[in-house]
Write a structure and sequence with these properties.
binds S-adenosylmethionine, 7 strands, 48% helix, alpha/beta, 14% strand, seven-stranded mixed sheet, Rossmann fold, 2 domains, 355 residues
């Protein structure tokens, strides 16, 4: 009975977030048509079968999310974890930012940063207004809006997609403990491109007895991550600023690495460099889990979604990414036993470094 009630509550919670996202998209479209009628997007049309398929995939994701919590892979409480304070506080700013964003789209401005932001020292490919965000990843305001914007984009399913990373990590930790394969007291897990720390928070809530690390290029996003993670009981993850393709860690340091929503924002050669560096910093026997967008090869039925995404959002490397098979890249780096999964609109690669 308690389980049925919790499941119903979870479904209601997700449906609420989905309805809110739909309401936001409707509001944003109406405001744009009213304020900037000259701004239109040449989008691929979608039919009712397509929408039914997207709904089916979302429901399947939520079912797996529920089942894995019920199986004890992570606590059920994590299903309801949401940064509500930020959501209520920053939603007006999301709406308020829209006219600026439309202005930049109309002017085809995709690499604009406030003059107070120091852009020195960042790779050129990174200095972009990804998603048309004001100041790209380089301001506090952008960091404050990021999680809410991702939730609105994925109809409230962003964390459910992130949680699909947890089962392979749990398997690794169980395997290590059954083999007595623990070279240090706490397994070390690094979240590569940790952004504002959402994945770290889910890892923290699932595996209290691990040492967590987060790396990102954005100082503003790291400050946000630090603020968020320090509010939670338990060990504070160690955060560092750096490039995922040249990480500031010694060889074979980590037991596991996770990487969520990074690869579609990298040029192809950098994707290989990041994978190579993940292999370098992982100890033999370790596991890497990558989560990113679906790709053309697996889900041709969702092609209109993949075509429309970079039209609506500034994502300069996305079209290349959806054609880029990461499995051969992982094998080139030395990873073995690579498997893939698809959940909703995300794809996952689980790769191992042989002992
Ligand atoms: C789409 S966000 C994903 C953030 C987070 N992983 C999540 O789950 O939402 C991409 C993140 O990658 C970071 N990033 C992009 N290129 C990077 C690089 N070469 N090295 C380290 N971080 C990078 C950005 O600063 C940003 O925080």
């Amino acid at each position: 009975m308690a389980e049925t009630l919790t499941k119903l509550a979870y479904q209601a919670f997700q449906n609420g977030k989905s309805a809110f996202s739909l309401g936001h998209r409707t509001l944003a479209t109406q405001l744009r048509q009213l304020l900037r009628p000259e701004l239109t997007f040449d989008l691929k049309s979608v039919d009712s079968d397509f929408l039914a398929e997207v709904t089916r995939r979302r429901e399947a994701l939520l079912q797996v999310d529920w089942e894995e919590a019920a199986a004890g892979i992570y606590p059920e409480a994590l299903l309801f974890d949401n940064p509500w304070d930020d959501f209520f506080k920053y939603y007006p700013a999301v709406v308020w930012e829209l006219p600026q964003l439309w202005e930049r789209i109309l002017n085809q401005e995709t690499q604009v940063f406030d003059s107070a932001i120091n852009t020195q020292g960042f790779p050129r490919y990174y200095l972009q207004n990804f998603h048309h965000q004001t100041d790209g990843y380089l301001s506090e305001a952008s960091a404050n809006l990021y999680d809410l914007q991702v939730e609105l984009l994925f109809s409230g399913a962003a964390d459910a997609m992130r949680r699909r990373v947890l089962a392979p990590i749990k398997q690794l930790l169980s395997r290590q403990s059954s083999l007595g394969d623990r070279p240090h007291p706490y397994p070390r897990i690094l979240d590569v491109a940790c952004g504002t720390g959402r994945m770290l928070q889910l890892l923290q809530g699932s595996f209290p007895a691990v040492s967590l690390y987060g790396l990102d290029l954005s100082p503003a996003y790291l400050r946000k991550a630090n603020q968020r993670l320090s509010q939670v009981n338990g060990t504070l993850p160690q955060l560092a600023q750096g490039q995922a393709e040249a990480m500031p860690y010694r060889d074979a340091y980590f037991d596991a690495l996770t990487c969520v929503f990074l690869f579609h924002e990298l040029p192809g050669p950098v994707r290989q460099q990041v994978i190579d560096d993940c292999f370098r910093v992982m100890r033999p026997g370790g596991t890497l889990v990558i989560c990113d967008s679906i790709q053309a090869v697996d889900t041709p039925e969702l092609e209109p979604m993949m075509a429309n995404f970079p039209i609506l959002f500034h994502e300069p490397y996305y079209r290349d990414y959806i054609q880029d098979e990461l499995t051969p890249r992982l094998e080139t780096a030395g990873f073995t036993g690579v498997t893939t999964q698809i959940h909703f609109v995300s794809k996952y690669w689980v790769a191992h470094k042989q002992s």
